[in-house]
Amino acid sequence: MAVKRQHEDSSSLDMTPMIDIVFQLLIFFMVTTNFMPLDNKLDIKLPSSKAVTKTKKQSPLKIEISKDGDLFFEGKLLNLDSLEAELSVYKDSEEIIIIKAHKDTRHEDVVKVLGICRAQNIRNVGIAALLQKKT
User: Fold this and answer.
1) Residue 100 to residue 130: CA distance in whole angstroms
2) pLDDT, tens digit, for every residue of 48-79?
């Protein structure tokens, strides 16, 4: 007696759910990378220091000074006069201002910004630095 074998369909894996997940992940990463803060628009290399203090209060206002002396206040390119006008809003306030100056910035540029803060009676001013690694 001849036995007939029934041919079973080979089992296959449905790829549709996997492709859906891959596309969802792709869209998720594309959307989240667009909303990341653009803190490092400038190529600022901070000087290092043995003692660095982290601010714990409200988020500080940032003044960035590039290697060439360009001033950026909260991401906007300004000159010294317009920086003084922007900081006049914070006159006599308890705002924290962090100055992020490139390590090769002229000392004079940093002193001018500190002078503007002092003229506006802004006392909570700090200078950003990187913590020196112990060797």
Assistant:
1) 11
2) 766 655 555 568 889 999 888 889 998 888 88
- Supply 75's token pair: 């991401």
Q: Is the pTM of this model over 0.90?
A: no
Q: DSSP for 25-93, please give it.
A: HHHHHHHHHHTS--TTSS-----EES------SSPPEEEEE-TT--EEETTEEE-HHHHHHHHGGGTT-
In this structure, which amino acid lies at residue 133?
Answer: K
Domains and CATH numbers, the chain: 48-131 (3.30.420)
Type of residue at 7: H
Whole-angstrom Cα distance, residue 103 to residue 32?
Answer: 31
